[in-house]
Amino acid sequence: MRETNTIHHVIITWLSVTLLLAQSLAYAETDTLERIEWKKVPIRLELVIGQEQRIEFPNAVKVGVPASIQPLLRTQSVNGTVYLLAHAAFDTKRLMVRELDSGRIYLFDITSTEDGVATHPVQIYVADSAANAPGAGGHELSPGQPGYIQLTRFAAQQLYAPSRLVKDRPGVVRVPVKRDSVDLLHGGTVKATPLVAWRANGLYVTAVKLTNLTHQARTLDPRDLRGAWLTASFQHHRLLPMGDEADTTAVYLISARPFEVSY
């Protein structure tokens, strides 16, 4: 009788955790990501010294930084995501960000202060293509077809949501992926094992399990990933030490080619 109660307790606990994970994913975008529409008017951003600001774009971009603040501002552009880190205070300066494929220009008026309030990561979108996620080969998807956010959410729900809540999505087809461990993150401290992959409209999304191999907590950073990824979304951004129940999470990788080719 005691064993039966224990099993019931484990099942209820597991269902509670998976439901919380599914709910946190559904609301993660609104809770942690500020979406800003590009209306051809410079976007104002206030940076806090020493705190990195993340800006996501629809496609890969290149950042133009005025010479006067190049020593004061670190900029990195990775697969459509720009990371800004101010080392010192400076007055308003204008950054020019150019999409590599389309040539579209985005303008940002940025300042840096020591006492400001850190802002959420920012996602830039263009209204006339907001429903169309870019696909492989530079083509745009038709309205209603899944884009980056929809594919990431689909993969996470397939992994974490209870089976009664999991639904197929038209146009998303499961594809084979080798489940051998790969050296996905620099440093060799995290074990990465591909679990499952899907294809939709020339895009591939792969769910990869990440496990901490050390006795220290590890913060996950997309810049540590090896491979050519269009987007990378972690289920959790921090792994607790090996042996803890939170030493494992997942990352959802979207690419223009299959995982084995993109890695």
Would you kindly provide a brief summary of this structure?
The protein is an alpha+beta fold and 263 residues long.
List the helices and strands and how they pair.
Elements: H1 2-32, E1 34-37, E2 43-48, E3 53-56, E4 61-64, E5 73-78, E6 81-86, E7 90-99, E8 105-113, E9 122-125, H2 148-160, E10 173-175, E11 190-200, E12 203-212, E13 218-219, E14 231-234, E15 238-239, E16 248-255, H3 259-262
Parallel strand pairs: 1-9, 2-8, 3-9
Antiparallel strand pairs: 3-6, 4-7, 5-6, 7-8, 10-11, 11-12, 12-16, 13-15, 14-16
Helix pairs in contact: 1-2
Describe this structure in words.
The chain has 263 residues and is of the alpha+beta class. The chain has 2 domains: 34-130, Immunoglobulin-like; 142-262, no CATH class. It contains 3 helices and 16 strands. The strands form 4 sheets. Strands 1-9-3-6-5 form a 5-stranded mixed β-sheet. A hairpin with a 2-residue loop joins strand 11 and strand 12 (203-212). Helix 1 packs antiparallel against helix 2. The longest helix is centred in the N-terminal third of the chain and has 31 residues, at 2-32. It is globular, with a radius of gyration of 20 Å. The protein starts with a helix and ends with a helix. Mean pLDDT is 79; it is low at 6-31 and 129-143.
